[in-house]
């Protein structure tokens, strides 16, 4: 292995170790459901809640722990706090797909915010703007963990925003069970607690047999939205973190008082975030040397996919690669699709997924974000908080046992 190959391989997420793709499957295993492997040492339970906090990187807890005393109390103890990896790229669609399916990006196929659909010859969005020509069940054919858990005998509940009830992303990676929706964070936590109580009502009658296990997915996206708009060191972001901390504490306290060790609540995240100053947000739309022979661009501002025309010659491809290296080689890891796959950035890559990955990838490690505004328009240039690349700030995420029960 060359020095360059070793450098690229060192950046790959630890898909076989502490990784977000094992959180939901481990939660299902902690309930005693057959067919799931417990990979993260989650405590056994009959009620397992996976709290997904969009955008809460491990470094952000470290920096703002004084504003999240409840979460930090779990984070500071090795018995209740771990650091896991998100996916490559470190973005919501890819990481939630890994959480929801237990698969690596190279298998579930959501390899970016927006990526090429080769048979359509256009870039398609993987979050809220799915192309109507893209069938979620065909794009991502692996059964979701929630569906598997439901088939295995668990009651399955998702608590999220109402608009996600039947969204393409939900159908692709989070299908299964019942859905409860509320727009406000506090309402989501109350709804989730009420649902747990309703599932296991108090009764004076003698119980017959073991209670039905419950697996709940609870989604909070306020920190991510606030970070994109205002930045992760802004007063607005701090207030969102404080709200999360207070609501999580009330939720765990309320349920813990009744259910004790029957309950496990674990917090995870899909990526971290860092702020990019206006002068670091660069539009490359007019950079001919960077776009020669390029048919499409995709991905995120800190993890750009570049797709060449099919008839772009090897010489042109090499020249564009060299142009990116010359301009930004000290600020980004720049490699070909084959190099990234060989390095394990996406885990094992299925043949159907390979062409969705850019021919050339630009993963930024400097204080920059790249925009192709000719394709996206100029509105994204206003985003302050950014993520997507393979830096620790973006890819390292917490796994917290909020009930105080230690990992095994």
TrEMBL record:
Molecular function terms from GO: hydrolase activity
**According to its UniProt record, what is one Pfam family this protein matches?**
Phosphodiest
Which Gene3D superfamilies does this entry report, sorted A to Z? Alkaline Phosphatase, subunit A (3.40.720.10)
Task: Spell out the protein name for this chain.
Answer: Type I phosphodiesterase / nucleotide pyrophosphatase
């Amino acid at each position: 292995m060359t020095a360059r190959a070793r450098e690229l391989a060192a950046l790959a997420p630890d898909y076989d170790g502490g990784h977000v793709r094992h959180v939901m499957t481990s939660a299902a295993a902690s309930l005693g459901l057959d067919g799931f492997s417990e990979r993260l040492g989650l405590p056994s339970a009959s009620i397992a809640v996976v709290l997904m906090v969009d955008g809460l990187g491990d470094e952000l807890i470290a920096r703002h722990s004084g504003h999240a005393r409840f979460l930090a109390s779990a984070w500071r103890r090795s018995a209740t706090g771990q650091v896991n990896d998100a996916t490559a790229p470190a973005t919501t669609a890819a990481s939630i797909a890994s959480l929801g399916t237990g698969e690596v990006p190279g298998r579930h196929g959501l390899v970016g915010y927006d990526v090429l659909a080769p048979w359509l010859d256009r870039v398609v969005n993987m979050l809220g703007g799915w192309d109507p020509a893209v069938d979620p069940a065909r794009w991502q054919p692996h059964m979701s963990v929630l569906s598997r858990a439901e088939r295995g005998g668990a009651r399955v509940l998702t608590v999220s925003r109402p608009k996600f009830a039947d969204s393409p992303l939900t159908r692709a990676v989070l299908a299964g069970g019942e859905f409860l929706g509320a727009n406000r964070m506090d309402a989501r936590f109350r709804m989730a607690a009420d649902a747990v109580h309703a599932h296991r009502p108090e009764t004076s009658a003698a119980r017959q047999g073991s209670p039905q296990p419950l697996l709940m997915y609870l989604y909070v996206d306020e920190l991510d939205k606030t970070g994109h708009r205002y930045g992760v060191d802004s007063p607005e972001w701090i207030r969102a973190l404080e709200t999360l901390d207070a609501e999580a504490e009330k939720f765990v306290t309320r349920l813990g008082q009744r259910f004790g060790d029957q309950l496990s609540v674990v917090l995870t995240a899909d990526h971290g975030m860092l702020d990019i100053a206006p002068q670091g947000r660069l539009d490359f739309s007019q950079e001919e040397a960077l776009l020669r022979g390029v048919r499409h661009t995709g991905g995120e501002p800190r993890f750009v996919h570049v797709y060449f025309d099919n008839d772009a010659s090897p010489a042109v491809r090499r020249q564009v690669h060299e142009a990116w290296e010359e301009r930004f080689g000290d600020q980004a890891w720049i490699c070909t699709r084959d190099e990234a796959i060989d390095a394990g950035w996406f885990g094992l890559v299925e043949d159907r997924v390979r062409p969705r990955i850019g021919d050339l990838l630009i993963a930024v490690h400097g204080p920059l974000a790249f925009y192709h505004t000719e394709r996206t328009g100029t509105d994204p240039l206003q985003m302050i908080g950014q993520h997507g690349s393979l830096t620790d700030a973006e890819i390292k995420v917490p796994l917290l046992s909020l009930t105080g029960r230690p990992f095994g």
